[in-house]
Design brief:
Length: 168
């Protein structure tokens, strides 16, 4: 058997929800959701990103809405506790941010360094998200300095985790 034939056997040809969400392939996403009744809508990749998280990161509003309507966990989080709402605050897409809130996303959830969606918006100067949060969920927000410190702590934690996995 040739090495090419061996390689072809390992190549995945089926499309997953994660693939569809990442690429914005709405047609394939809807096809998978409607024809695969036992699909795990909250499946995650090795970083803990769900299809919803990837759709948010890639500004795919239609994919986000389809996943949410099919029961995707609106408060799902990655391996370091960043929620889909935090991802949306980081990206600054107000339409997706509002969509997540409409489906029940909790803006008070925190990641492993106690950052909230508001902190992410503040950290990356997403004025539209900050203004919306201030109008809709008024609260005393941390200073930008505190948000930076939390972000550095999160970054350090992620680097240490990666280094420990390399050394094993």
């Amino acid at each position: 058997m040739s090495k090419w034939d061996d390689y072809k056997k390992t190549y995945r040809v089926d499309t997953t929800l994660i693939d569809c969400a990442r690429s914005g392939d709405f047609y394939s996403l809807v096809n998978l959701l409607s024809h695969t009744p036992d699909i795990n809508i909250n499946e995650t990749n090795s970083s803990g990103y769900s299809a919803l998280m990837l759709a948010v990161y890639n500004n795919e509003k239609d994919c986000c809405e389809a996943l949410l309507r099919c029961g995707a966990d609106v408060n799902s989080a990655d391996n370091v506790g960043n929620t889909v709402l935090m991802a949306s605050a980081y990206k600054g897409n107000l339409e997706i941010f509002k969509l997540l809130l409409a489906f029940g996303s909790n803006p008070q959830l925190t990641n492993k360094t106690n950052m909230t969606a508001r902190d992410w918006a503040l950290m990356f100067n997403r004025k539209n998200i900050i203004d919306y949060l201030n109008k809709t969920y008024p609260a005393k927000a941390d200073s930008k300095f505190k948000s930076i410190v939390k972000f550095i702590a999160l970054s350090s934690m992620m680097v240490m985790k990666r280094l420990s996995s390399i050394n094993q």
